[in-house]
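Hi F.,

I've been meaning to write this up properly since the lab meeting, where we talked about keeping a consistent format for the predictions we share between groups. The idea is simple: the sequence comes first, exactly as it goes in, then the structure tokens exactly as they come out, then a line or two of notes. No screenshots and no reformatting. I'm using this chain as the first example so we have something concrete to point to.
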Amino acid sequence: MHPLQKRIFICGEHERVDYRCSGISHFICIANPGATVTLPEWFKGACLQLWFGDVVSERDAALCNTRAVSEEDIRQAIEFSRAALQEPETKMLVSCNYGASRSTGLAYVLLADHLGAGKEAEAFQLMLKIRETAVPNGMVIRVADAVLERNGELLGPLRKFNAELSSELFPVSYGFKRS
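Output, unedited:
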């Protein structure tokens, strides 16, 4: 087991109670703008609250009447994570509504930042071990790729994951050709 699997956790809002006795010291909560958010009563540590929707583009955000993730959101999360992970006892929980898209995308970014450039595939696989039901938000990863100046390297593992997922969902081409 990778040491970070004992320090970074991902969950949905309904699962937060499961971490009550886990020694969580840092909490990143991602919520839709305008949502009512309450921290778990058991949590007494440092918290970063981010407000953005689970969308794939600025256009999608406008159509859904929400806000897309911004570079500032990513910078705040990276800064929070870097400071937190300097302490050897830190246990950080990253959570959104369902623990599937925004939180897994952000957790992947934080893992990739911690492991360093060139370790994107390892960070992605680690995120999948932490949260097997992950379907990471591509916009979170695209924005983070720009912030971290990874020149598309953060996107490679996501593309591979999406291609594998697509081939599982649609194993037969049905004669359609991509243009």
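Notes:
The two ends are 42 Å apart (CA to CA).
The longest strand covers residues 26-31.

If this format works for you, I'll send the rest the same way.

G.
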